[in-house]
Each structure stands twice: as structure tokens, then as C-alpha cells.
Amino acid sequence: MPVQDDRTEMLAAAAKRTDRDQPGSDDLKQKLEKAKEKIRLMELELDKLRQENKTLHQLLESEVLSDQINLTFTDGETLGRYIHMCLKEQD
């Protein structure tokens, strides 16, 4: 019967073991946390870019489409620089 008790104790000990007892699990947890943080930062950047894109479209619609003019490449480039400058001033 002592063999059975040893096996039972080993199984009980294995069941109580946490992830920290597993070799390399701390490294994996750190990598996972770093990856989650990168994803969070990318989502924030994506939200910022979406807002900037929305602002650009609103500006284009209000400035360009209301006047019903055809922009040349140079006009569009100048307008793009102006919009970019306005967005920098908002930050």
C-alpha cells in the first residue's frame, strides 16, 4: 500500500502545482504581457490614425467639395500640407 500512497501524493502535488512551477513559464508570461502591451499601443495608434483620417475627410469635404473646384496635383499637395499643419497644431 505505500506505493499507492506515494502515487496519490505525487498526483496531489502535481495537481497543486501552479504555472510558476513549470520551467520557462515566467518568460512566456513576460512575452505575453509585452505582446499585449504592443497590441494595446497599436490599437491606440490605429484609433489616432482613424480619427486623423476622419478629420482629413471632413476638411476635404468642407473646403474642396463646397467650392466645386477641380484640384490640380499641386493644389492637392498644398492642401495636404495645410491639413497636416492644422493637425499638428491640434496636438
Task: Kindly describe this structure.
By secondary structure, this protein is an all-alpha fold. The protein has one domain. The chain has three helices and no strands. The longest helix is centred in the middle third of the chain and has 41 residues, at 25-65. Residues 16-28 have a biased composition (Basic and acidic residues). Residues 1-28 are annotated as: Disordered.
Please provide a brief summary of the model.
Residues 1-28 are annotated as: Disordered. By secondary structure, the chain is mostly helical.
Keywords:
single chain
Largest sheet: none
What is the helix fraction of residues, given as a range?
over 70%
What is the H/E string? HHH
Please state the structural category: mainly alpha
Q: What is the end-to-end distance?
A: 75 Å
Helix count? Answer: 3
Rg over CA atoms: 30 Å
Average per-residue pLDDT, rounded, comes to 76
* Total number of strands: 0
Total domain modules: 1
